[in-house]
Protein backbone atom coordinates (compact mmCIF):
# COMPACT_ATOMS: atom_id res chain seq x y z
CA UNK A 1 0.00 0.00 0.00
CA UNK A 2 1.42 3.40 -1.01
CA UNK A 3 1.43 6.17 1.55
CA UNK A 4 0.67 9.65 0.19
CA UNK A 5 2.95 12.37 1.51
CA UNK A 6 2.86 16.12 1.03
CA UNK A 7 6.21 17.81 0.57
CA UNK A 8 6.29 21.24 2.23
CA UNK A 9 6.90 24.13 -0.15
CA UNK A 10 10.54 25.26 -0.03
CA UNK A 11 11.30 28.74 1.25
CA UNK A 12 11.95 30.11 -2.25
CA UNK A 13 8.46 29.12 -3.38
CA UNK A 14 6.92 30.61 -0.24
CA UNK A 15 8.83 33.84 -0.96
CA UNK A 16 7.17 34.11 -4.37
CA UNK A 17 3.77 34.20 -2.63
CA UNK A 18 4.67 37.03 -0.25
CA UNK A 19 3.58 40.65 -0.37
CA UNK A 20 6.45 42.09 1.72
CA UNK A 21 4.57 44.65 3.77
CA UNK A 22 5.28 47.96 5.50
CA UNK A 23 2.19 49.78 6.76
CA UNK A 24 3.43 51.34 10.01
CA UNK A 25 2.26 54.96 10.34
CA UNK A 26 5.80 56.06 11.17
CA UNK A 27 7.31 54.55 8.01
CA UNK A 28 9.73 56.81 6.13
CA UNK A 29 10.95 56.92 2.54
CA UNK A 30 14.21 55.36 3.74
CA UNK A 31 12.24 52.53 5.33
CA UNK A 32 10.45 51.85 2.04
CA UNK A 33 13.75 51.88 0.15
CA UNK A 34 15.08 49.29 2.63
CA UNK A 35 11.88 47.28 2.22
CA UNK A 36 12.33 47.14 -1.55
CA UNK A 37 15.98 46.11 -1.24
CA UNK A 38 15.03 43.36 1.19
CA UNK A 39 12.19 42.19 -1.04
CA UNK A 40 14.52 41.88 -4.02
CA UNK A 41 17.06 40.01 -1.90
CA UNK A 42 14.44 37.62 -0.53
CA UNK A 43 12.68 37.11 -3.86
CA UNK A 44 9.20 38.13 -2.70
CA UNK A 45 6.36 38.73 -5.14
CA UNK A 46 5.72 42.34 -4.18
CA UNK A 47 6.00 45.10 -1.64
CA UNK A 48 2.86 46.50 -0.03
CA UNK A 49 2.89 50.10 1.22
CA UNK A 50 0.64 52.97 2.19
CA UNK A 51 -0.57 55.23 -0.65
CA UNK A 52 1.43 58.20 0.62
CA UNK A 53 4.67 56.26 0.07
CA UNK A 54 4.10 56.03 -3.69
CA UNK A 55 5.76 56.10 -6.13
CA UNK A 56 8.20 53.37 -5.16
CA UNK A 57 11.46 52.96 -7.06
CA UNK A 58 11.74 49.33 -8.17
CA UNK A 59 15.07 48.02 -9.50
CA UNK A 60 14.89 47.43 -13.23
CA UNK A 61 14.58 43.79 -14.15
CA UNK A 62 13.63 42.67 -10.63
CA UNK A 63 10.01 41.88 -11.55
CA UNK A 64 8.93 43.13 -8.12
CA UNK A 65 5.31 44.32 -8.01
CA UNK A 66 3.93 47.20 -5.93
CA UNK A 67 0.71 46.97 -3.92
CA UNK A 68 -0.98 49.80 -2.03
CA UNK A 69 -3.76 49.68 0.55
CA UNK A 70 -7.09 51.48 0.21
CA UNK A 71 -9.62 52.48 2.86
CA UNK A 72 -7.07 51.24 5.37
CA UNK A 73 -7.34 50.09 8.08
CA UNK A 74 -10.96 50.75 9.13
CA UNK A 75 -12.83 50.41 5.83
CA UNK A 76 -15.18 53.15 7.03
CA UNK A 77 -14.42 55.47 4.12
CA UNK A 78 -17.10 56.17 1.53
CA UNK A 79 -16.94 54.20 -1.69
CA UNK A 80 -16.15 57.38 -3.63
CA UNK A 81 -13.14 58.08 -1.43
CA UNK A 82 -11.92 54.48 -1.70
CA UNK A 83 -12.28 54.60 -5.48
CA UNK A 84 -10.38 57.89 -5.72
CA UNK A 85 -7.64 56.64 -3.42
CA UNK A 86 -7.24 53.44 -5.44
CA UNK A 87 -7.14 55.32 -8.75
CA UNK A 88 -4.53 57.75 -7.47
CA UNK A 89 -2.38 54.87 -6.21
CA UNK A 90 -2.49 53.18 -9.60
CA UNK A 91 -1.62 56.47 -11.30
CA UNK A 92 1.39 56.66 -8.98
CA UNK A 93 2.64 53.21 -9.86
CA UNK A 94 0.70 50.61 -7.87
CA UNK A 95 0.12 47.31 -9.67
CA UNK A 96 -2.26 45.99 -7.02
CA UNK A 97 -4.79 47.46 -4.57
CA UNK A 98 -5.70 45.91 -1.21
CA UNK A 99 -9.01 47.51 -0.17
CA UNK A 100 -10.84 47.17 3.14
CA UNK A 101 -14.58 46.54 3.08
CA UNK A 102 -17.03 48.24 5.44
CA UNK A 103 -16.87 45.49 8.05
CA UNK A 104 -19.95 46.90 9.78
CA UNK A 105 -21.98 46.38 6.62
CA UNK A 106 -20.92 42.73 6.58
CA UNK A 107 -21.79 42.39 10.28
CA UNK A 108 -25.23 43.80 9.51
CA UNK A 109 -25.75 41.36 6.66
CA UNK A 110 -25.80 44.18 4.10
CA UNK A 111 -23.87 42.27 1.47
CA UNK A 112 -25.38 44.27 -1.40
CA UNK A 113 -23.67 47.31 0.13
CA UNK A 114 -20.42 45.37 0.49
CA UNK A 115 -20.63 44.35 -3.16
CA UNK A 116 -21.38 47.92 -4.28
CA UNK A 117 -18.40 49.22 -2.30
CA UNK A 118 -16.05 46.72 -3.93
CA UNK A 119 -17.54 47.33 -7.37
CA UNK A 120 -16.89 51.08 -7.04
CA UNK A 121 -13.20 50.42 -6.49
CA UNK A 122 -13.13 47.83 -9.27
CA UNK A 123 -14.53 50.38 -11.74
CA UNK A 124 -11.86 52.87 -10.68
CA UNK A 125 -9.03 50.37 -11.13
CA UNK A 126 -9.98 47.92 -13.87
CA UNK A 127 -7.81 45.02 -15.00
CA UNK A 128 -4.89 44.53 -15.27
CA UNK A 129 -4.74 46.10 -11.81
CA UNK A 130 -5.16 43.32 -9.24
CA UNK A 131 -7.86 44.06 -6.64
CA UNK A 132 -7.68 42.30 -3.28
CA UNK A 133 -10.58 42.64 -0.83
CA UNK A 134 -9.78 42.65 2.89
CA UNK A 135 -12.78 41.26 4.78
CA UNK A 136 -11.32 41.31 8.34
CA UNK A 137 -12.26 37.66 8.80
CA UNK A 138 -11.42 37.48 12.51
CA UNK A 139 -14.20 39.99 13.20
CA UNK A 140 -16.81 38.00 11.19
CA UNK A 141 -18.83 34.86 11.74
CA UNK A 142 -18.52 32.03 9.25
CA UNK A 143 -21.75 33.09 7.55
CA UNK A 144 -20.48 36.66 7.30
CA UNK A 145 -17.17 35.47 5.82
CA UNK A 146 -19.09 33.54 3.17
CA UNK A 147 -21.30 36.55 2.40
CA UNK A 148 -18.33 38.91 2.10
CA UNK A 149 -16.48 36.48 -0.18
CA UNK A 150 -19.53 36.08 -2.41
CA UNK A 151 -19.81 39.86 -2.65
CA UNK A 152 -16.17 40.07 -3.74
CA UNK A 153 -16.74 37.45 -6.43
CA UNK A 154 -19.85 39.26 -7.70
CA UNK A 155 -18.04 42.61 -7.77
CA UNK A 156 -15.21 41.32 -9.92
CA UNK A 157 -12.36 41.29 -7.40
CA UNK A 158 -9.25 39.18 -7.95
CA UNK A 159 -8.55 38.11 -4.34
CA UNK A 160 -10.18 37.93 -0.96
CA UNK A 161 -7.85 38.69 1.93
CA UNK A 162 -8.23 37.76 5.57
CA UNK A 163 -7.10 40.79 7.51
CA UNK A 164 -5.52 44.21 7.80
CA UNK A 165 -3.31 43.01 10.64
CA UNK A 166 -4.48 46.00 12.68
CA UNK A 167 -7.84 44.76 14.03
CA UNK A 168 -7.99 43.75 17.71
CA UNK A 169 -9.97 40.63 16.77
CA UNK A 170 -6.82 39.18 15.19
CA UNK A 171 -5.44 38.22 11.82
CA UNK A 172 -5.38 35.19 9.58
CA UNK A 173 -6.47 31.74 10.69
CA UNK A 174 -6.31 28.42 8.89
CA UNK A 175 -10.06 28.01 9.42
CA UNK A 176 -10.86 31.34 7.77
CA UNK A 177 -8.56 30.63 4.83
CA UNK A 178 -10.15 27.22 4.30
CA UNK A 179 -13.64 28.74 4.39
CA UNK A 180 -12.70 31.58 2.05
CA UNK A 181 -11.04 29.22 -0.43
CA UNK A 182 -14.03 26.90 -0.36
CA UNK A 183 -16.41 29.81 -0.95
CA UNK A 184 -14.58 31.38 -3.90
CA UNK A 185 -13.96 27.95 -5.48
CA UNK A 186 -10.85 29.02 -7.37
CA UNK A 187 -12.53 32.01 -9.01
CA UNK A 188 -10.48 34.37 -6.80
CA UNK A 189 -7.16 34.06 -5.06
CA UNK A 190 -6.99 33.98 -1.26
CA UNK A 191 -4.49 36.10 0.67
CA UNK A 192 -3.65 35.26 4.28
CA UNK A 193 -2.34 38.23 6.24
CA UNK A 194 -1.95 39.28 9.83
CA UNK A 195 0.15 37.15 12.14
CA UNK A 196 1.81 34.97 9.49
CA UNK A 197 5.22 34.97 11.18
CA UNK A 198 6.87 31.59 10.66
CA UNK A 199 7.50 29.29 7.73
CA UNK A 200 5.20 26.79 9.43
CA UNK A 201 2.43 29.42 9.56
CA UNK A 202 2.97 30.18 5.88
CA UNK A 203 2.87 26.52 4.83
CA UNK A 204 -0.25 25.86 6.91
CA UNK A 205 -2.10 28.74 5.27
CA UNK A 206 -0.98 27.69 1.79
CA UNK A 207 -2.14 24.14 2.51
CA UNK A 208 -5.51 25.61 3.58
CA UNK A 209 -5.88 27.42 0.25
CA UNK A 210 -3.91 30.67 0.44
CA UNK A 211 -2.38 31.74 -2.86
CA UNK A 212 -0.75 34.91 -1.52
CA UNK A 213 0.66 35.86 1.90
CA UNK A 214 0.91 39.27 3.55
CA UNK A 215 4.04 39.32 5.71
CA UNK A 216 6.01 42.11 7.36
CA UNK A 217 8.76 40.00 8.94
CA UNK A 218 9.60 38.16 5.73
CA UNK A 219 13.32 37.78 6.45
CA UNK A 220 12.64 36.01 9.73
CA UNK A 221 9.91 33.86 8.20
CA UNK A 222 12.10 32.76 5.30
CA UNK A 223 15.01 31.82 7.54
CA UNK A 224 16.80 35.04 8.31
CA UNK A 225 16.21 34.58 12.02
CA UNK A 226 14.14 36.48 14.55
CA UNK A 227 16.69 39.28 14.78
CA UNK A 228 16.36 39.95 11.05
CA UNK A 229 12.61 40.38 11.38
CA UNK A 230 13.01 42.66 14.36
CA UNK A 231 15.52 44.92 12.63
CA UNK A 232 13.65 45.04 9.34
CA UNK A 233 11.75 48.26 8.56
CA UNK A 234 8.74 46.05 7.95
CA UNK A 235 8.84 44.38 11.36
CA UNK A 236 5.39 44.99 12.87
CA UNK A 237 2.23 43.17 13.86
CA UNK A 238 1.10 42.83 10.22
UniProtKB/TrEMBL annotation:
The organism sits in which domain of life?
Answer: Bacteria
Q: Indicate the secretion signal residues.
A: none
EC identifiers of the protein:
4.1.2.4
Keywords (A to Z) from UniProt? Cytoplasm, Lyase, Schiff base
Q: Where in the cell is it found?
A: Cytoplasm
Active-site positions on this chain? 98 (proton donor/acceptor), 161 (schiff-base intermediate with acetaldehyde), 191 (proton donor/acceptor)
| Main localization (coarse) | cytoplasm
Pathway given in the UniProt record: Carbohydrate degradation; 2-deoxy-D-ribose 1-phosphate degradation; D-glyceraldehyde 3-phosphate and acetaldehyde from 2-deoxy-alpha-D-ribose 1-phosphate: step 2/2
Q: Which CDD domains match?
A: DeoC
In terms of Gene3D superfamilies, this protein maps to: Aldolase class I
The reactions it catalyses are: 2-deoxy-D-ribose 5-phosphate = D-glyceraldehyde 3-phosphate + acetaldehyde
Query: Where would you find the membrane-spanning parts of this chain?
Result: none
InterPro entries, alphabetically? Aldolase_TIM, DeoC, DeoC/FbaB/LacD_aldolase, DeoC_typeI
Q: Which PANTHER family match?
A: DEOXYRIBOSE-PHOSPHATE ALDOLASE (PTHR10889:SF1)
Q: Which family does it belong to?
A: Belongs to the DeoC/FbaB aldolase family. DeoC type 1 subfamily.
User: What is the purpose of this protein?
Assistant: Catalyzes a reversible aldol reaction between acetaldehyde and D-glyceraldehyde 3-phosphate to generate 2-deoxy-D-ribose 5-phosphate.
The protein's name is: Deoxyribose-phosphate aldolase
Name the lineage. Bacteria, Bacillati, Actinomycetota, Actinomycetes, Micrococcales
Amino acid sequence: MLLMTTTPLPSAEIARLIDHTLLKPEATVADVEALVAEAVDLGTYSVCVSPSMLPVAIPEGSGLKVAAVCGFPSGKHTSAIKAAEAAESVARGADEIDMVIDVGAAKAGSFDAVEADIAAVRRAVPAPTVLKVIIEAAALTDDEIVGACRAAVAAGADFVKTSTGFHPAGGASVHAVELMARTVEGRLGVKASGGVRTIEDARAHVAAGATRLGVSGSAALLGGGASAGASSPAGSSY
